[in-house]
Design the sequence.
């Protein structure tokens, strides 16, 4: 790509009234706009299929059907198919050992020499006698033979393998051929989208204790057992996740953040909490959290008052959407 590779500067082409234009002036203008567009594509998108280019074929077919589509290679060049295309399956019987033969179907950007001429014109005074003014835009399709390793099918031809890995050849589908026919339906699991997947979308945050407004919602503490544990008075709060900018209900996970030892009591208390996020109440902007404090005395077991205040814990949360 000239702008990124060889070109060291850019020139803005200007015109003036009465200027004598040559073919290279207009070619330069078209080339500038085209390469700036490629630079945009290369900078903001990844190589892959933007839309269309669906490939279909059933068991026993000798050909596959390719729908119109739009794709980008790794240099940002647009690969465009405007009409539905029927593409013949490679005419091979087997792999030489009685087994199937596997191929990837690739598509690539055509060079001018690959395109058919759709219009020519004569120059002024027939000098030169004729020149090409339009070429029909058609992508280049290629069947790439794969090895027979079912655990790691790779192109047999190293050059084609490098072109695929570099994003200059885009894989649209994979087929299995036996006796010149499809042995399995066409697989499109190998294709890559030019638009990166939006999911899963992950965001996280920290809800401060002062903003949680814990509210009691259950019965009194349970009786202390022989090991000195008690389940504290249960609480409930609403956690704000607006900062996550979720578009749909995510799956939330959370943990408590704060000290676990209360040295103000005698004997000292080891305090932790069991938390639960009920599915009801989950929204893109918030969720309910239920807290069951767990208290163990560091010494002699003792009962806690039934309405002991909730620990001053922050809540660290993480949401996964998609």
Sequence:
């Amino acid at each position: 790509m000239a702008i990124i590779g060889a070109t060291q500067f850019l020139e803005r082409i200007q015109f003036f009234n009465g200027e004598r234009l040559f073919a290279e002036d207009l070619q330069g203008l078209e080339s500038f706009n085209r390469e700036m567009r490629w630079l945009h594509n290369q900078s903001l998108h990844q190589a892959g299929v933007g839309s269309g280019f669906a490939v279909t074929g059933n068991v026993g077919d000798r050909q596959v059907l390719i729908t119109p589509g739009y794709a980008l290679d790794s240099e940002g060049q647009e690969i465009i198919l405007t009409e539905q295309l029927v593409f013949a399956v490679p005419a091979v019987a087997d792999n030489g050992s009685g087994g199937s033969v596997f191929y990837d179907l690739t598509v690539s950007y055509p060079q001018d020499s690959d395109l058919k001429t759709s219009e020519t014109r004569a120059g002024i005074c027939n000098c030169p006698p004729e020149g090409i003014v339009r070429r029909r835009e058609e992508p280049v399709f290629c069947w790439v033979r794969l090895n027979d390793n079912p655990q790691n099918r790779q192109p047999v031809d190293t050059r084609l393998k490098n072109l695929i890995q570099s994003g200059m050849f885009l894989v649209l589908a994979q087929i299995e051929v036996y006796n010149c026919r499809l042995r399995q339906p066409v697989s499109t699991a190998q294709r890559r989208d030019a638009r990166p997947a939006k999911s899963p979308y992950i965001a996280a945050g920290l809800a401060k204790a002062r903003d949680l407004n814990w509210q009691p919602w259950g019965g009194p503490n349970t009786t202390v057992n022989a090991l000195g544990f008690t389940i504290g008075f249960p609480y409930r709060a609403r956690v704000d996740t607006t900062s996550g900018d979720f578009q749909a209900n995510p799956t939330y996970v959370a943990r408590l953040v704060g000290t676990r030892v209360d040295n103000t009591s005698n004997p000292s208390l080891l305090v932790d909490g069991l938390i639960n996020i009920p599915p009801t109440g989950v929204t893109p902007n918030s969720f309910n959290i239920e807290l069951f404090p767990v208290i163990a005395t560091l010494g002699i077991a003792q009962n806690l008052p039934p309405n002991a205040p909730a620990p001053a814990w922050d809540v660290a949360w993480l949401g996964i959407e998609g």
Remarks:
- Residues 220-226, 300-308 have pLDDT under 50 and may be disordered.
- The helical segments are 23-44, 158-165, 209-212.
